[in-house]
Design a protein that fits this description.
The chain is of the alpha/beta class. The protein folds into 2 domains: 164 residues, Rossmann fold (3-Layer(aba) Sandwich); 82 residues, 3-Layer(aba) Sandwich (Rossmann fold), CATH 3.40.50.1100. Helix content is 38%, strand content 18%. It has 11 helices and 10 strands. It is globular and about 55 Å long. The mean pLDDT is 94.
């Protein structure tokens, strides 16, 4: 099955936005492909041509959407995949549903401790990971799939939203989608990234990705770090209740680790007056609940 591009743009009537004069649109990237969903299609597919004929090795946490998408792509297109998973302690537990799906799709999982994982971009550490994982000729894709090819692939997301919204907002884990989105938007449009993990590093990460992809910062964008709920994969009862209520109200499945934080952040920002009356706000739905 081929991709559904451009992805649909769906307006939802929600008084939490309407009372402030803001229109909310959902950019349904979760409907691009049944298995390579959301921003993963845009980021992963540009990396597959240079990877042809080689093992694809990439990185992620225990609930990484990127690992799932890479494993699915390997099964669909017939190339071997290795997932380097953060957290050596996970080897002592049964695989969660996300990693079980990766393994079922043929991905070989290699667990590393968190200290090693943090240093994975250092050449000598990466070389040791490759040796330990017994991978000799690998095409390495960084965590979250965020590299220059992915940024260029995500630029189409912004281009699809030209003339359709004043502000385009997306949840950010590694920053690649925001970097491309902002570059693809037209004059007068702004991009907003809602960080799904703490640390405050994403502004520098997005700037670095744009500099490597385009040679300079592109577009009008910023990152808001207030809505990560304590860190990546952290879902508070309040966030879960918000997501359930949004699903019931609008009939749209809300993935908890990224999309729920994005939508909750937009509700709060709207109430704070961050968007002037008359603003058309597009929220990118980058994934859907698993399984």
């Amino acid at each position: 099955m081929g991709p559904r591009l451009p992805s649909p743009l769906q307006e939802v009537a929600d008084e939490r936005f309407a009372r402030h004069g803001v229109r909310l649109l959902l950019k349904r990237d979760d409907l691009i492909h049944p298995e390579l969903i959301g921003n993963k299609w845009r980021k992963l597919v540009p990396n597959l041509a240079p990877a042809a004929g080689r093992t694809v090795l990439t990185f992620g946490g225990a609930y990484s959407n990127h690992l799932r998408a890479t494993a699915a792509a390997g099964r669909l297109l017939g190339f071997p995949t290795v997932g380097v998973v953060r957290g050596q302690e996970l080897t002592d537990r049964p695989l969660n549903v996300s990693l079980t799906r990766c393994a079922a799709d043929g991905m070989r999982l290699h667990f590393v401790d968190r200290a090693t994982y943090r240093r994975k971009a250092e050449p000598e550490v990466l070389a040791e990971i490759l040796r330990a994982a017994d991978v000799r000729d690998a095409y390495v894709i960084p965590e979250g799939g965020s590299n220059s090819l992915a940024v260029h692939g995500s630029r189409a997301l912004g281009e699809e939203l030209r003339g359709r919204a004043d502000v385009a907002a997306v949840a950010c884990g590694t920053g690649g989608t925001l970097a491309g989105l902002a570059a693809g938007l037209g004059a007068g449009q702004r991009a907003l990234g809602v960080a799904v993990l703490g640390g405050g590093f994403l502004t520098d990460a997005v700037r670095g990705l744009q500099e490597r992809a385009f040679g300079a910062r592109r577009g009008d964008w910023r990152v808001d770090d207030r809505f990560h709920c304590g860190g990546f994969a952290r879902v508070t009862p309040e966030l879960d209740s918000f997501a359930q209520e949004f699903e019931k109200r609008h009939g749209v499945p809300v993935e908890r680790h990224y999309v729920a934080k994005l939508l909750y952040g937009l509700v709060v920002l709207t109430a704070e007056g961050a968007f002037p009356p008359g603003t058309v706000l597009a929220a990118v739905v980058t994934g859907r609940p698993f399984p």
